[in-house]
Amino acid sequence: MLTLSYHRRNHNIHRRIHRPLSVLLVAVMALLLGGCGLGVRKPLATPTAIPTLAFPESNALNPNSEATPTTLPAQDAGHGNTAASESTEASTPEATATPEAATGRVFFVEPADHAVVPRTFTVVMGVEGLEVQPAGEVVPGAGHMHILIDTDFIPAGEVIPSDEHHLHFGDGSLEAELTLEPGEHVLRLQFADGAHRALEGEQYRDEITVTVE
After folding, report:
1. CA distance 132 to 105
2. Can you tell me whether residue 87 is helix, strand or coil?
3. Residue 159 carries which DSSP code?
4. Percent helix, strand and coil across the chain, each rounded to 5?
5. Which three-class secondary structure state does DSSP give residue 35?
6. Environment class of 31 (CB within 10 Å of its CB; exposed 0-12, middle 13-18, buried 19+)
7. What does 63-82 look like in DSSP terms, one character per residue?
8. Helix (H) or strand (E) holding 86
């Protein structure tokens, strides 16, 4: 009985001594760990998200994609058009001046179209804006008359022949007497240059129809 009590008392003494020592030891270890940086770990910083750059799909990597045309800025395009315009202006030759077309004309004064005339009658020829001169010298805007009887006009540039159907007035006259068979006749007036070459243009022609009694 005495022995059991002795053991219990010793055990309580040991517990009283060891408990403060354990608390002290824990405190010392905590201080040591804190000084070495091994204490409570700080939370790691949250990594900053790296922005993702969006790049257009390359045509080389995607063969099925269509090529996207590149549009020039408006300012650059304007400069390009200006340069092209200047180049065109520089390369365009100046227009060649051409002489004004003749404004003159020839016409029958007498007889009137569809007139009834005797077998021998007078023909009067008129001219405006042209110079009538004898045949020989070729002068621009000048020439002489020809009367064509029941035959077509001579093409421009060709020489008007001289026969019973092609009457020449190379002396520069504007009046003549004609004698024709009874019936209907077509008279054509044609102006030609000094070399008897028919001139180009309707203004150098006139035509009437007469009936001879």
Report:
1. 11
2. helix
3. B
4. 25, 30, 45
5. helix
6. exposed
7. TTSPPPPPPPPHHHHHHHHH
8. helix 74-91
How far, in Å, are 1, 17, 155, 177, 185 from residue 29 at the CA level?
42, 19, 133, 155, 149
Q: What is the pLDDT of residues 147-194, one digit of tens each?
A: 999 999 999 999 999 999 999 999 999 999 999 999 999 999 999 999
- Pair of tokens at residue 177: 């007497």
Token pair 């209907």: residue: 184
CB 105 within 8 A of CB 127: yes
Q: In this structure, what token pair is assigned to residue 188?
A: 């054509």
Indicate the residue type of 203. Q
Spatial CA neighbour of 166 closest among 120, 213, 203, 198: 198
Q: How many residues would you count in the chain?
A: 213
pLDDT tens-place string over residues 64-101: 445 444 444 444 444 444 444 444 443 433 333 323 34
The one-letter amino acid code at 91 reads S
Contacts of 180 (CB under 8 A, 6+ apart): 119, 149, 212
CA distance 67 to 20: 84
Residue with tokens 């003549």: 176
pTM for the structure as a whole: 0.53
- Report how far residue 209's alpha carbon sits from residue 107's, in angstroms, rounded to the nearest whole number: 13
Strand partners, 117: 212
CATH of domain 105-212: 2.60.40.10
Query: What residues does each domain of the chain span?
Result: 105-212
